[in-house]
Amino acid sequence: MTHIVRASVLATLSLAAFPHAVIAQSGGAIACGQPYTVVAGDTLSQISKRAYGSAIFDTLYDANRSTIGGNPNLILIGQVFDVPCAGDSTAVAAAPATAAPEQEEETVVAVTAEGPVVLTFNKASGGRFIINSGIIDLYLQQVTDVTDGRVQFVDPPEMNQDAKAQLGLVTSGQVDGAYVFNGHLAASHPLLQLPMTPLMGGSAEQTAVSLWNLHENYLSDADYFPEAKLMGFVAAPAAHIWRLDGEPAMAQENIAEANNYAVPYFAGLDTRGPAAVREETERQLMAQDEAENGTLTFFMAHGAARAVGVWTPERTVTEVDYGMYTPTFSVVLSNDAWDRISPADQAAISEISGEFLAHRSASWDVFDNGHRTHMIETGLKAEKANDALMAELQAYSDAKNAEWVALANAAGIDGDAALMSYKDNLDALQDLLLFR
Questions:
Q1: Nearest to 152 by CA among 341, 354, 356
Q2: What are phi and psi of 76, to 5 degrees?
Q3: How far from 228 is each of 8, 100, 111, 152, 174, CA to CA, in Å?
Q4: Fold of the domain spanning 185-338+358-436
Q5: pTM metric for this prediction
Q6: What is the pLDDT of residue 352?
Q7: Contact at 8 Å (CB) between 238 and 435?
Q8: Could you tell me where in the chain the CATH 3.40.190.170 domains are found?
Q9: Could you give the CA distance from residue 154 to residue 143 in angstroms, rounded to a whole number?
Q10: What does the alpha-carbon distance between residue 343 and residue 130 come to, in Å, rounded to a whole number?
């Protein structure tokens, strides 16, 4: 793990992805007016809590924006931060450097006289799966941190892992929160399907941030998600083209519509375990490959291909810039649950939701890139889609995007402007694709 330097994201990834990782956790109060050096396990909210007694990190981020950059969720091991004291008009009172652990704990866990707001959050995947261990679990804990314990999350008595049921669980009041695969909302929320179009996604972080900006700047004006409080989006890495015969995909093969295999990865999100999924995959692939005369084609991310048993060392993947599709998820709370939270805590939670939450999708990129690196080192050939195939995919994408623009216009949104804004965001964030 000596090469892992993104302190707030990489140091908190699933240990299943990095089995030999040793995560250093820092502790103790931080004196204001002194430089602080980031170590593994740090986040801005944790540093702020140790310096000021509050996990709200605006002061710390504002003082170090030039060092951190535009994403406060990604800080680097070894970065040196300024920690302003209360004498700075923007700073809150700093905790004394010699505060005892018991005093710090009393500062951190402060709830109202009525007790904390305790909410249930359903997770449609196994606990070790990266969307939980690398993204959602960290987000829910940070909500508790920034509200000083006044908002807390617990598991429901029984997890419902039916991926298609998640939004209904929230709107019916069975649970207070969940994440919902947007692909299952095509009928009710068609404007969220843009990343499911070829060439309209990319890395998980790139796509989630772009989709959130689209929501903030355009979609939210139409009140298109009234049934729940939308906290933000999470994305998985883009799907690429896999062939059982090991040959790269070419133009004039109707590739855009040739995804013959519905990956169980998003039917149950790793709820049954890799062995069961691989057995099912092998049965389906053998039957379908025979029916397709050896030309079976399907789209999935690198980690998914390895997890479900599609990848073999001699196989070739055709990698497509911006992907064949990029799965996204809506993180939602029920309107009733949101209303139970005080306005001050709603404001604090909003600060670490939205775009900040979208940036947490970087964990999934790191997870996926680790699988890609392993596969390449053991024989996988990764080839870029050639110009002819890219032109064919672009024509297909343009036609689908025209349909999306019409839907947006019908909802009272400037579809052309919204689409251009989304594409511009994808382009601006292309450097987030880690294996480039």
A1: 341
A2: -110, 140
A3: 29, 42, 25, 19, 13
A4: D-Maltodextrin-Binding Protein; domain 2 (3.40.190)
A5: 0.75
A6: 96
A7: no
A8: 185-338+358-436
A9: 12
A10: 31
